[in-house]
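Researcher: Here's my situation. A collaborator sent me these components and asked whether they could plausibly form a single complex. I don't have experimental data yet, so a predicted model of the whole assembly would be a useful starting point for our discussion.
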Amino acid sequence: MVDGQTHGRVIDIVTEFANIGAGSAATALSSLLDVELMNDATTCEILPLSKVSEYLGGAKQVVAGTYTYLCGELKSGVLVVLPQDSAIALLEHLTKEKVVLSSLNQIQMSALKEVGNICLCWYLIAVSKMIDIDMIPAPPDATVDLLGAVLDMPLATVGAKVDTVIAVHTSFKAIDRQFEGYFLMLPEESTLKLILDRMGAPEQ
Amino acid sequence: MRVQKVIGIGQLGICRPPEQLACLGLGSCVAVILYDHQLRLGGIVHVLLPKAPAKNNASEEKYADSGTRKLIRELAARGAAKERMVAKIVGGAQMFTNLNLTYADIGRNNIAEVKKALREFGIRVVAEDVEGNRGRSVYFDAETGKVVVETAFSPSRTI
């Protein structure tokens, strides 16, 4: 898919693509939470399926993950992942009540889903504008569980055709308090080609 | 010190005492654990998808049907007898219940394909901790054949 020569260029383009999406999502999240958020640089790694959760910090950590899948011309999984402390902080801020992650009530679960939904939508709006392709996300769903388990379905969806995936990862954190998380995009190969075309990668 | 090896998605591991094998954070993935008590020889395959495509140039270990068969072959090649092998199955949860996608039911399909492959060889499933909507971590001890299943929020259980 990507040979040595084009490798660096591909990474650059996909990274820029994700930076724009993540920037837009973080801005939306900032105003929703009234917290100043900062994005870290996007990293883009080509990984075997078996190594993805390790790359993201280990399959055993408990996280809150919101996932959607793009099912239009562009095919990609997109996730917002929050470590458990940040998920608690976020939900307590929004619902003004004590939050226990192991037993979220309906309001808390739906707040989590909605925050994920807003982030994912802003991410997608920004990248969709940039490459001028409409994106059709499935309604997102959220869960709080082991990272490995959260990633299984997204990986199964992109992993059906290939043994390696491209994990495009942008983390964000609050400037003045303990709050962080990351956006993760897992594009299918055809989608990657489309992104590269639209963003002017030279034909090799 | 126990030697513990983590088996990731689409990987297969064989172990003898004192080794332990683990699969961390199984969602819709399934860990198939086979054990020959007499030889104290066992193995795990961590499968992601139900059925290997007909024209298969991908890895066998990724799929429930071909992965289970490969694990049986690998153990048999090391002297394990099919008649003595027993199976334990863990995983196959549905993590995102509201998503109406092709892959929504993947956990259940994975389990079905694993069981079908085991039946072909007449291997008995002696224990399982499957389905539901919770992720699981699995630890397999080749000394005893016991399997410990952990989840994010509830106490671990041994099967």
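Model: Some features of this prediction you could bring to your collaborator: The CA atoms of residues 61 and 69 of chain B lie 9 Å apart. Chain B has a mean pLDDT of 92.
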